[in-house]
Amino acid sequence: MKTNKIITLITGGNRGMGLALATKLATAGQTVIIGTRNLKSGQTAIAPLITAGLPIEAIQLDVTDPASVTQAAAFVTEKYGYLTTLINNAGAAFDFGMAPATVSQALLRKNFEVNYFGLIDVTQKFFPLLKQTARAKIINISSMMGSKTAALDPKTGVYQAVAAGYQSAKAAANMYTVQLAKQCQREQLAITVNAVDPGMVATEFGGATPKQAQALGAQTVDTGIARTFALATDFDNTETATFSNVDGPVAW
Ligand SMILES: NC(=O)c1ccc[n+]([C@@H]2O[C@H](COP(=O)([O-])OP(=O)(O)OC[C@H]3O[C@@H](n4cnc5c(N)ncnc54)[C@H](OP(=O)(O)O)[C@@H]3O)[C@@H](O)[C@H]2O)c1
């Protein structure tokens, strides 16, 4: 067992919440690897952090490209031999506002490629590395958009939102979270698997600018990453199969 350094991989770490989390976790002393589908973009994003002496590096990782995921896992295997925390943060929405009756198969599949199949491919390929630590974590960045309870509750912001492909993919990833967590429990693996809802956050997600998102009521990136940061730094917390935000558990 090699447990000396906390090694954390964050997919989609070149911007938005992924980059903010990477910065905060590296500042807290974790060795952070950001997965970035465009290596140059990731390297540019973390250049000031490296200059500041933070333990962070970028690797090419497109979650929808199996060869890229395989290569990234091989790199981490070779360099570290284990992984403490996997944060499946990469995500994208392609069908905001589109009518469920007519949204194209192509767009539905695109949503699933990134938010569901991509997340699972990364998880499966890094799973052997997570098994090499005394206590490991998988944190899946989900969304209330994937909550059927919220979608049916007129009191929530999600009630008015329509993005059937994105929402279904996040809901499916939530179920994957539950099933993988239960497998880890059955097999007595010291790996927790949890989903986090960051809330509506002022990033470039969905094509808006952070300013536009803020005008629509989005919260700051700092607030958006707070729950994930808390989970990623609390190694006494053995809760698994949870879905939560900064205020506590949320409805699946
Ligand atoms: N912002 C919100 O209001 C909100 C609310 C709920 C949940 N979320 C979730 O939070 C997570 C982070 O979102 P964000 O707000 O930080 O969004 P963002 O600023 O748009 O960042 C998304 C990140 O995902 C990466 N990505 C997209 N497709 C990828 C792929 N195929 N392979 C690897 N990386 C890929 C992007 O890389 P590129 O730069 O290469 O595009 C980018 O780094 C997502 O999972 C999102 O669904 C966001």
From TrEMBL:
Give the top-rank taxon of the lineage listed in the UniProt record for this protein. Bacteria
Signal sequence coordinates? none
Show the Pfam families listed in the entry. Answer: adh_short (PF00106)
Membership in a protein family: Belongs to the short-chain dehydrogenases/reductases (SDR) family.
Stated name of the protein: SDR family NAD(P)-dependent oxidoreductase
